[in-house]
Amino acid sequence: MAKIVYSMLTSLDGYIAGPEGEIALPVPEAELHQHFNDLMRQASVVLAGRRMYEMMRFWDSPDRETGDTEVERDFARAWRETPKIVFSTTLREVEPNARLVDGDAETTVRSLKAETDGLVILGGADLAASLSRAGLVDEFRLYMHPVVLGGGKPYFQSGQSLTLRPLGTESLSQGVTLLRYAPAS
């Protein structure tokens, strides 16, 4: 059975993007980037909503093969090699190694969870909120940057109520602290 992990960079005040939806958090440097490369290589599948998928398509570009650093080139390869399921009612097509689902995310993810082994990475706050309400998220990983954005897209959707139990913390480079939680029930 798969383990579904909602994993995102976030500011100290809980935002994953700035007020206009822009990436407002510091760009991961080599050591932190490698952490995410390793995580991507562990993933059996990536689940993403439309906005997250469109943002991450940056890594599908052939230019990433000749990116500035080896750690970036490695992430691009890991991203392209990892199967993806994209949930969207507006997209009409996705890149190779991705499957588009425009129907019921909960049913699709329940089946995936039962039929897949290993780590499933979940990205995107709206999709994560929907799946956590359905009891399908096994772990929440907040990568807290030592910055305050003052507003924007929150890691946890407004009005979402969860009781969590701590699984641990880890200090990473760039002053980032990884906070890991599981649903209490």
UniProtKB/TrEMBL annotation:
Residues annotated as domain Bacterial bifunctional deaminase-reductase C-terminal: 3-177
Membrane-spanning ranges: none
InterPro entries attached to this UniProt entry: DHFR-like_dom_sf (IPR024072), RibDG_C (IPR002734), Riboflavin_Biosynth_HTPR (IPR050765)
Domain of life: Bacteria
Protein's UniProt name: Dihydrofolate reductase family protein
